[in-house]
Amino acid sequence: MLNRLMQGGIFLHAFLRTRYGFRFRNRAALEAWQQQRVQHFLQRCAKRIPFYRRYAGQALQNWPTMQKTLMQQHFSELNQAGISLQQAQQFGLAAEKQRAFSAPLQPGIAVGLSSGTSGQRGVFLVSDQERARWAGVILARVLKPAHLKQLLNPFASPLSVAFLLRANSKLYTTIHNARLHFHYGDLQQSLSALMNWLQGIQPQILIAPASVLAAIARAKIAGELHIRPQQVISVAEVLEADDQLLIQQAWQQKTEQIYQCTEGLLAYTCEHGQLHLNEEWLHIQAQWIDDARFTPEITDFGRETQAFVRYRLDDVLRVSHSACNCGRHSRVLSAIEGRQDDVLWLAPVSKSAMQPVFPDKLRHLMMQLQPAPEDYRIEQHGMIWLIRLQAATSASPETVGALQHQTATALFSLCLQQELQPPELRFAGWEAFAAGQKRRRIRCVQSPNKE
Asked: Could you give the dihedral angle defined by the CA atoms of residues 240, 245, 249 and 250, in that order, rounded to the nearest 10 degrees?
């Protein structure tokens, strides 16, 4: 009972502070406050996390950068409980196999696994207190005023949330209670089964990967599904423009985003529709790729069960240089472009070093095709680009051939505009993504020599 009351207090404090606090005068004030939080966090880390004891008293820039491989090598030294990587992985995999996600690994500690799109599955540990704090933050960021009013009204019906993902976690089920009904939809099921499930629960908030939202939207437009969510939120995948348009057509609303991964809640869509980094709870150092794009290096000063200090992600984020009318001074993103291995590489005509082709350019190009393919995949294998196009089911071989020709022409035109040497293009038959697999339309499987 005492532990439950403490978690409730942590939840309420995180909710109120996130929803109504954090009102900084300017960006400098936010950064100064961040520095104070980081310094206190580093002092606690040096005492409680074995790996970081040698860095006691040093400034953040003197602590080592951390990436997934290094974290997995020193997993037991990077968490307070001394849990080994093997213990955490075995527990997480067993939970996924049994599709049972509620039990803790140790009393008060839950384990989760990432989707493993990079080839290595990330593992994370969170305490009950950290789960309560996360729930407070996420609800403060997501809930619209009408939904908050509904939650607080004991005579109103509970708020219904449908959350579709490959695997559930105690982290997510933390938000389930008598006033908020959290329904987990397992993406291992067929789409038809998920649609029947959605029809039955009639969610007010629909949360799912972008590709799943797009498939549900198609069913809604076709009259095969009758749900009317008041809020649609994309997670886990890059939200592309064609999916945004489809979702808006289905439910007459823009798709919001939650950028959440193993390393924590990184970004959210504010009430003005802008995607903000969650800098009130994270220190995010930008590692710039060019004037607009960067990869984030994260220090999460709200998590101590497993420490994330100067943790470098492979994601490529595109910054917006416009201020948001919501009044927050956290950095605004114009897009989450994907992982660094979603960037393809080509040789320029006049230089020797390879140049990046960012995925947003390719996504825009594919959307401009007339008619556009229903779906596509572009994979780089050295100097070869393997392209798979999904045409309409009724498309004739001639139509498919014309679509391939149009795609090749558009890619060669892009190379000409960018003064890049075109790759060798090879077209192959369409292969659907496996159930529950995260969609990645553009991927560098094998990069060419960049020298």
From this structure: 0
Residue recorded with tokens 């407070």? 136
Say if pTM beats, i.e. exceeds, 0.70: yes
Question: Quick check: 162 and 170 in contact, CB under 8 A?
Answer: no
Q: Does pLDDT of 429 surpass 70?
A: yes
Please list the residues that pair with 111 across neighbouring strands. Answer: 125
Any bridge partners for residue 206, and if so which?
A: 162, 232
Q: Are 354 and 300 in contact (CB under 8 A)?
A: no
Count CB neighbours of 344 within 10 A.
23
Identify the pLDDT of residue 172: 57
Q: Which residues pair with 378 in a beta bridge?
A: 387, 442
Quickly count: other Cβ atoms within 10 Å of residue 54's Cβ: 10
Predicted confidence (pLDDT) at residue 66 exceeds the cutoff of 90:
yes
In this predicted model, what pLDDT tens digit does every residue of 288-322 receive, in sequence order?
998 899 999 999 998 889 999 999 998 999 999 88
Which is nearest to 113 in space by CA: 105, 104, 125? 125
Nearest-angstrom CA–CA distance, 112 and 259: 16
Pairing of strands 205-209, 256-261: unpaired
Residue count (the chain): 451
Higher pLDDT among residues 342 and 173, named by residue? 342
Q: Is the CB of residue 159 less than 8 Å from the CB of residue 152?
A: no
* Rounded CA separation 209/211 (Å): 6
CA distance 235 to 213: 10
- What is the DSSP annotation of 27-93? HHHHHHHHHHHHHHHHHHHHHH-GGGGGGTT--GGGSPPB-HHHHHHTGGGGBTT---HHHHHHHHH
Nearest-angstrom CA–CA distance, 259 and 274:
13
Give residue 435's pLDDT.
65
Average pLDDT score over residue span 46-52:
94
- pLDDT for the residue 401: 87
Q: Is it true that the peptide bond before 371 is cis, omega within 30 degrees of 0?
A: yes
| C-alpha to C-alpha distances, 114 to 76, 168, 367, nearest whole angstrom | 18, 11, 30
CA distance 247 to 103: 35
Please provide residue 226's backbone torsions phi and psi, each rounded to the nearest 5 degrees: -125, 80
CB 145 within 8 A of CB 317: no
pLDDT of 425: 94
Asked if pLDDT for residue 33 goes beyond 70, the answer is yes
